[in-house]
Write a structure and sequence with these properties.
Structural class: alpha+beta
Distance between the termini: 100 Å
Shape: elongated
Radius of gyration: 46 Å
Number of helices: 3
C-alpha cells in the first residue's frame, strides 16, 4: 500500500515539473513574451533606396577669374602703378615698359609713310597722263590712218605700262609703311600692361628697373565681382544635390554666413576620391568682401528641404 502511495506521489511531482517548463516556454497569461533580437525587414527587389540626407561639405572659396597679367613684349619695367590689395578697373594701367625707342621709331615710320603717300599721288598723276596720251594717239591713228608711226604708238603704250608699274610699286611701299606704323603702334600698346577686368591685385612680381621677357608675369589679378565656392560631395549623397539648390557658406572665424546657389555639378565621380565636384555662386558684394576670403576653406551647407529642380 505504501509503495502505491509513493509511486503516485512521484508521478504527480513529474507532472508538476512538466507544467512549470511549459509555462516558462509559453509565458504566463498577461505577461509579455521576451523575443530574441529582431532582423531588419528585407527590401523587395526593384524598390529604390532613399538617398542619405545631404549634410555640410568641405569646400574652398575661389574667385571666378584669376590671372597672372604677363608682359606681351620683352622690355625694361619703368613703372609699376599698383600694390598688393589695390582694386583696379578694366583697362587700368598696371605697369609700363620702356617705350622711348618704339615711339622714336614710330615717328620715323609715320614720316616715311607721308613720303610714300606723296610718291603714290605722283604715280597716280603720271599714270593718268600716260593713259590720256596713249588714248589720244590711238584715236588719231584710227582717224588719220598712218598719221602716226607704229613706233610712236608703241612708245605711248609702253609709257602707260611703265606708269602703271610705278603706281603699283608706290602703292606697295605705302602698304608696307602702313604695316610698319601699325606694328610699332601695337608694340607701344603692348608695352603698357593693363588690367583685363575689374579685380584686386593679389601679387606683384616685379619692380621698376627689372627686365622682363615676353610672357613673364608682372601682376596677379583676381576678379572682385564674383565669388564662388567649390566643394566635394560623396557619391552616395549626390542624389540630394541639384543645380539651383540654395547653399550657405559658413565661416566661423569671420562670423559670416554667405548665401549662394549651386550652378555647376561635375557629371562624373572622381575615381580616386569617389567625390563629385560642385560649384556654387555666392552672393556677396565686393565692398563687403573681407580680405583673404579667396582660398579659404569653408563649410558648405545645402538646404535640406529645397524644391529646386535640375536645370536642363
Amino acid at each position: 500500500m505504501k509503495k502505491l502511495v509513493l509511486a503516485a506521489g512521484c508521478v504527480a511531482l513529474a507532472l508538476l515539473c512538466v507544467g512549470v517548463l511549459v509555462r516558462l516556454r509559453a509565458g504566463a497569461p498577461g505577461e509579455p513574451v521576451h523575443a530574441g533580437p529582431s532582423r531588419p525587414l528585407s527590401r523587395e527587389p526593384g524598390q529604390p533606396s532613399a538617398p542619405p540626407p545631404v549634410e555640410g561639405f568641405t569646400g574652398v572659396v575661389v574667385n571666378r577669374d584669376t590671372v597672372d597679367v604677363a608682359a606681351r613684349v620683352e622690355g625694361l619695367v619703368t613703372e609699376v602703378r599698383v600694390r598688393l590689395g589695390d582694386r583696379v578697373t578694366r583697362n587700368a594701367l598696371l605697369a609700363q615698359l620702356d617705350d622711348h625707342q618704339a615711339k622714336s621709331e614710330l615717328e620715323v615710320a609715320r614720316a616715311t609713310l607721308s613720303v610714300t603717300r606723296a610718291d603714290e599721288e605722283k604715280a597716280v598723276l603720271e599714270h593718268q597722263e600716260a593713259q590720256e596720251r596713249n588714248g589720244r594717239n590711238q584715236k588719231a591713228a584710227s582717224l588719220r590712218g598712218d598719221a602716226l608711226s607704229q613706233e610712236e604708238l608703241a612708245a605711248a603704250r609702253y609709257q602707260e605700262q611703265y606708269a602703271a608699274s610705278r603706281l603699283s610699286a608706290a602703292r606697295a611701299r605705302v602698304q608696307e609703311q602702313q604695316a610698319r606704323v601699325a606694328q610699332l603702334e601695337q608694340r607701344i600698346h603692348d608695352e603698357a600692361i593693363r588690367a583685363p577686368f575689374d579685380g584686386v591685385v593679389t601679387a606683384r612680381y616685379v619692380d621698376p628697373g627689372a627686365s622682363v621677357s615676353r610672357g613673364a608675369p608682372v601682376v596677379r589679378l583676381v576678379s572682385s565681382e564674383e565669388l564662388w565656392v567649390r566643394f566635394a560631395v560623396p557619391e552616395e549623397q549626390g542624389p540630394g544635390l541639384a543645380t539651383g539648390l540654395p547653399v550657405e557658406v559658413r565661416i566661423k572665424e569671420l562670423g559670416l554666413a554667405i548665401p549662394g546657389l549651386v550652378e555647376k555639378i561635375s557629371p562624373e565621380v572622381d575615381a580616386a576620391s569617389r567625390m563629385i565636384i560642385a560649384e556654387a555662386r555666392l552672393t556677396l558684394p565686393a565692398a563687403q568682401q573681407p580680405p583673404g576670403l579667396s582660398g579659404r576653406a569653408v563649410r558648405v551647407h545645402p538646404a535640406q528641404h529645397s524644391t529646386a529642380q535640375p536645370t536642363p
